[in-house]
Every structure is written in structure tokens, then in C-alpha cells.
Design brief:
3-stranded antiparallel sheet, globular, 5 strands
């Protein structure tokens, strides 16, 4: 599974940054900071699965998300979107 750009579409690319680049103990990911119409802010990443991962999901594999945190648990979201598009509703 690879972190890919654009996270949403090309228009958001200027808001993207790479987190953990050069930190061998972490997997670098591309993150876009998005401000929604209600002024809330989210950090959004996009991952592209390789053929083996897609095959595993088709066979029933689950997707696990881990979230390092310090203190209270922060909410997370998971969505699906075709390349260079916004998530499906």
C-alpha cells in the first residue's frame, strides 16, 4: 500500500506535505490539510493498493487502521474514491 498524491484532486496539491520523510521507523505518508465549509480542519491521506492487496480484499481481508495518539482517542474516517477524485457519498 502506497501513500499517493493527489490526496483529493490536483487543486489541493499545494496543501499536501510528506510526514515522516527520512524517519526510518515510520512509513512516510502524503497528507493534505483540508478546511471544510464549517471551518473544521482534517488531515487526509490517500493510499493506493497494489494488485496483491486488492486480491486479498476481494477474498475478504479486512482493512485495519492504527492511529498513534497521546491521551484521548481521536476519531478517524475511511472512505473510497477513484484516482484523482473526491470520495463517493
Amino acid at each position: 500500500m502506497n501513500s499517493v498524491s493527489p490526496v483529493y484532486t490536483e487543486s489541493e496539491v499545494p496543501s499536501e506535505q510528506v510526514i515522516a520523510l527520512g524517519q526510518d521507523e515510520y512509513y512516510p505518508i502524503i497528507v493534505a490539510r483540508i478546511r471544510y465549509s464549517d471551518n473544521s480542519i482534517a488531515s487526509v491521506t490517500r493510499f493506493r493498493l497494489d494488485d496483491k492487496e486488492r486480491e486479498m480484499i476481494a477474498k475478504g481481508a479486512d482493512i485495519l487502521l492504527s492511529q498513534p495518539h497521546h491521551g484521548s482517542m481521536m476519531p478517524i474516517g475511511i472512505e473510497l474514491a477513484m484516482p484523482d477524485s473526491y470520495p463517493e457519498s
